[in-house]
Each structure stands twice: as C-alpha cells, then as structure tokens.
Write a structure and sequence with these properties.
single chain, alpha/beta, Rossmann fold, 5-stranded parallel sheet, 4-stranded parallel sheet, 16 strands, 9% strand, globular, disordered N terminus
Length: 632
C-alpha cells in the first residue's frame, strides 16, 4: 500500500497566527482531543450498548487516530464512526502512513541470481485478460459506468500494463521512518493542455525521483479549458484528467497531498519561514483553500518560503545519483567532465543502432545530453531542503516545457526504465475520457466495416491531426490541397478518414472529401452525451491514436502525445520497427520536410517539445522487478 498521505494536525502549538485559515477568516485552532482514559471512562459509565461498542473499539484500536480527530463531536457521533470504520469526510489522497518505512535495495547480482532462468525471455504482457481481483485499479479499462462500450470493444484503447513489482519501487532519497517529511510544490504550465500535461509529467517525475511528497496545486482555470463556464466544471485539478487517487494509493514510492493539506500541516503550524528574513511566514490572508481562487499571491509566497531552483531544461539535465552518498554525486559530475573532454554530447540526429537501455551511465548521458553543457544534480544540499518548489515563469525562462524523459537522468538505468513505465502505466487519461473515445473508435470501425465488409473486415480507418486555430508555427499550417498532395501515396481512395482538428470551418477540408470519406468528432456527438466538452481535445487524441495510419502536425505537442501512445501500442502489438522504437509504416507528418522522421531512431535533439522520441517507449520493460522495494 502506498503512503498517499493526507495530513491532519492536532494538539497544541506554541505558534499562532492571526487572521483566517481555509476561508481566509480565522487562524488555526487547536481543539481538545479525546484521550483513551476519557473514552474508557465514558463508555464504562453508560449502558450495556455502549459497553459492547467499547469492545468494538478494543478490537479496532488502529482507529485511534480517527477518534482523536472527532474531539468536537458528540459521543454518539464518535461511536457511529467506529461502527462504520471510516472518517466522516474521507479524503481520496489519505491513507495510513507505513509504520516501518523500511526500504531495502536488491542488488544487480542478487536479481540476476533470482531471475537467471528468465534472462533473455520476453516479458509476459497481460493487457486485458486477467481476473479483476488479480489486477490493480489502474490496470484495466471498464466503461460500464461511463456509458460503454462493452469491455471487448474498449480493450483496444489499453496500452498500459499492471506490473506488480513496479508498485513497490521507492526512491533512494525517500525519507526514512522518523525523519521529517520533505515536499515538492510546483506551478502548472501556463500554456495549452498538452504543455500542461507535459510539465505535469516532468514535475511528478521530479517529485518521485527526489522521494518527496508531491503537493498538487489548487484547482484553477486552465488555458483553453473553460468552455461553458457556469454550466459544467471549468476549474480543474489534475485528478480531473488522470487517475491521481488510484495512482497515489497503488505506488509505494509516491506520496501525494493537496495544497490545502500541505498549508494546514506545515504553513499554519509555523513550520515555514521566509528564506530572506528567517521569520515564520503564513499564507496570504492565512488562507489554505485556494481552489478556484487567484493563485498569484500564493505563488509569490511560496517563492519566499521554499527552495526554488532555476532549472532550465534547455540548459541542464536533472541528474539523480544512485544514492545520497557524496561519491555518487561526484561520479555524475566526473562523467560530464569526461564527456566534454571526449568531444561533447552526441550530435547525430539519427542513429542506426540505438544506445542500449542498460548501457553504462556515461554512454546514456552522452546520448541524452543533446546540446546541454550542464547537469542540475540533486546533491546533498538540495536533498536537505524541506520544500522544493518548481515555478513557471515565462519572463525568467523557467518553464518545464520538456518531456520528462528528456530532462530526468538516472545514474541507475533501472530507475530510468521504471520512470518510463510509470508514466506509461499510470499517467493515462481517466476512464471518463478513455470511454467516450472508445465509443467513437468502435463506431468508426463499425462504419468502415459495413462500408466494405469484404476488403475491410476489421473496420480499419486512418487518422489525421490538423492544427489550425492559434497555432504559432505558421509554416506548419499548410493548405488542405498540400495535405492531400503530401499524403495520397500512403492512403487508399475512398478510405474512412477521421480528422482531429480545431478548425471550425469544415469546408476547409473539401479537397480531402473529394477523395476520402472524412469524419470529425462532430459526426459522433451522440457518443458524447453528458461528457464535459473540455475533454473533447483529449478524446480526439485517443481516437487519432487508433488509426491504422496517422498523419500529424510538426511542432505540435498534441500530435506528439499521439506519437507516444502509438509507440506504446507498437510495442504491445509487436508492430514493424518496435525493437528500435520506430514507426515506419504507421506514422507520418503531413509536412514533407518532416514526413518520415518517426521512421528512424532519433536520439534527443533540437527543441524537445517539437516531437516525442523513441527513448520514451523503446525496450522500457527490460529487467522488470530489478528495483528498490518497500518493506511496507
């Protein structure tokens, strides 16, 4: 069981604040707590019914923490909670913290001895056939509660896996039992959804790699995700897109709490100090609930009470030593020096033979550095910081607009692969987004199959992403005639084509309609009943990921994520090129200059956000299980 801890604060404190707390009206209060003796006395002095309830309490003494939190309730309410054995206001991020907290390392030699018989054999993958009781909550996809389709049709959306040993991984920097908890806070990216998603993956990866409790930012309005405000939800947290509750529960190495919980536990108890004055500092207006509020004052306050590194992904690579020992920090620095002496990082944009995923650290660093000349090392000084905060500041050019795998570097290759599997297997869209996409995919297949049952019995269709709207890269906004000309060699006349686009004037696509049977999301509105319209872009992505052939938009992070999803599927289905992470028969860009870039293995280079890279999905299942595990 992971320790996704929601922290409650009780007891007395010598530190007080004036003003308000969650609503910004009053400071922290410290109510009296029910002691064991008080409860025992009360129970013994009541009726036989209360005596029997006390016996239940004796059996379930692990609920003592719950009892203390109910000091301001009546005895009847407290006893009712004992009968139900659950808190009155359950928090999805809250669970019991592990008592032992022991972490032990499995050495490479030990692992090799345990798994000699499995060496070189392919990993058994089970995407959909396991019994529900044998699988984690995140492992499958069930659309019964989301309007369908049937599981047999939804199954094709699943590219993620359930790897039980991965759930036990913990960072070597994780706080041990009895040590103070360390936190990581962050600011979401200010761009469009896929920039926000990209930055979220990166900061989440940083938090896990650092072994810190990840503090989720308050719910707020996101750029271009505020359609129909007042009629549907438009203030979002990341749990509205990803299965964050289950994610935190099922991974031993991840602790996650809300900003409100963090502020109540650390700020309102006087544990945070202004780093310039050394004085205890409380949040603006003593507010702890910032959901739906203007968070600018909160951000400015966080900058003053946290360690805020200016890590710029285009200038440095975040490097994590194999342990907290000083020698491992020096090993990373010496590797960079050696690479610079030997001619610098790898400069090639295409490699015939990719660097093995289990290559030496210096070989992997040479490929992953790209043009960067520095490392941002998680050294001993930073490891000791109580709170690390990652800001998003366009003016200072501090922004996590980078793929997690292009920024995070691990001395231990096993941790590198674990992180890539974690993002594949857990950071996927929630069922409320997956299922509408699955319905459209199923409808497309049925339409294509009925149109040509003899030549297309599987109901194959092809997909495009055509970005118009506010796209800043004008040279990729080509005409429909050019799109048609650039893609006709790969398509069959009359084929069913699904186009994911932000172009409102569908007449723009008339040249394509002359040769293909073109469909848009608008043609499947009946499959989107009661779906938040702010999810439409993500649904479009998922539908586009299932086309037999896909044509994307260069520079677009929307297309980029489709490329990664298709990369995951290519490994699952053993498609042509999967060994090298290439997509030589299924992925094209609609612009001629970049049309075939996904057909060859490319190491990290250029502006990372332009595209996704094979390093994120190629051979990432190698040596599953060879990781630190928790003794929870």
């Amino acid at each position: 069981m992971a320790r996704a801890v929601g922290i409650s604060v009780s007891g007395s404190s010598s530190v007080k604040a004036s003003g308000g707390s969650s609503g910004g009206r009053e400071g922290p209060k410290h109510s009296s707590s029910w002691t064991y003796t008080q409860i025992l006395t009360s129970l013994l002095g009541t009726s036989v019914l209360l005596i029997s309830l006390f016996n239940i309490y004796q059996v379930h003494r692990s609920s003592d923490a719950l009892l203390q939190s109910k000091a301001d309730q009546s005895v009847n309410n407290v006893l009712k909670d004992f009968m139900e054995m659950k808190p009155s206001n359950p928090n999805p991020f809250t669970s019991d913290r592990d008592e032992k907290g022991t972490v032990h390392q499995v050495s490479v030699a030990q692992y090799d001895r345990m798994h000699e018989a499995d060496e070189g054999e392919p990993i058994e993958r089970d995407y959909s056939g396991a019994e529900e009781s044998d699988r984690s909550t995140l492992a499958g996809l069930s659309c019964a509660d989301h309007g369908g389709p049937l599981d047999e049709f939804a199954r094709e959306m699943v590219y993620w896996q359930d790897i039980s040993s991965d759930s036990q991984y913990t960072s070597p920097f994780r706080s041990k039992s009895g040590q103070p908890r360390r936190y990581m806070t962050f600011e979401p990216d200010g761009g469009g959804w896929n920039n926000i998603r990209m930055a979220m993956e990166t900061v989440l990866g940083l938090g896990i790699a650092m072994g810190r409790t990840v503090v989720l930012p308050p719910e707020q309005r996101m750029y271009l995700l505020a359609k129909d405000r007042g009629r549907q939800k438009t203030d979002f947290g990341f749990a509205d897109f990803f299965p964050m509750h289950e994610l935190a529960t099922e991974n031993a190495g991840l602790e996650m709490i809300t900003m409100q919980e963090f502020l109540q536990a650390e700020a309102m108890t006087g544990n945070l100090r202004d780093k310039h004055t050394g004085q205890i500092s409380f949040p603006p207006e003593n507010r702890t609930d910032w959901d739906g509020q203007d968070v600018k004052p909160l951000k400015e306050w966080l900058h003053n009470v946290t360690h805020t590194p200016f890590w710029a992904p285009e200038k440095c690579m975040a490097a994590f030593p194999a342990s907290g020992n000083h020698k491992d920090v020096e090993v990373l620095k010496s590797m960079l020096e050696q690479i610079q002496k030997d001619g610098g990082p790898l400069q090639e944009h295409v490699l015939e033979n990719p660097t093995p995923v289990d290559a030496t650290p210096i070989e992997r660093m040479r490929e992953n550095l790209a043009r960067r000349k520095e490392l941002c090392v998680y050294d001993e000084t930073m490891q000791k910081e109580p709170v690390v905060h990652f800001m998003c500041n366009h003016r200072l050019r501090v922004r996590m607009l980078v793929h997690f795998y292009a920024f995070l570097f691990f001395e231990d290759w096993r941790e590198d692969l674990w992180m890539k599997r974690f993002m594949r297997d857990h950071m996927r869209y929630i069922d409320a987004i997956q299922c509408p996409a699955a319905r459209i995919v199923h409808a497309l297949r049925e339409y294509a199959r009925q149109k040509d049952p003899v030549n297309n019995p599987r109901g194959d269709f092809d997909t495009f992403h055509v970005r118009r709207g506010d796209f800043q890269f004008k040279r990729t906004r080509i005409s429909a005639e050019d799109i048609l000309s650039n893609t006709r060699d790969e398509l069959t006349e009359g084929a069913v084509i699904y186009i994911a686009t932000d172009e409102r004037d569908k007449a723009f696509f008339d040249p394509l309609k002359q040769f293909y049977d073109v469909k848009f999301m608008d043609d499947f509105k009946n499959e989107l009943a009661n779906v938040n319209t702010n999810y439409y872009g993500m649904i479009d992505q998922l539908v586009a990921s299932r086309g037999q052939k896909f044509f994307g938009c260069w520079h677009s992070t929307f297309t980029g994520f489709i490329a990664r999803i298709r990369g995951y599927h290519s490994v699952k289905d053993n498609l042509a090129g999967f060994e090298k992470g290439t997509l030589p028969t299924t992925f094209y860009y609609a612009t001629l200059a970049n049309k075939y870039v996904m057909h060859e293995y490319a190491p990290l280079h250029g502006a990372f956000f332009n595209r996704e890279f094979p390093i994120s999905w190629r051979d990432i299942d190698k040596s599953v299980g060879n990781l630190p595990i928790s003794d929870a």
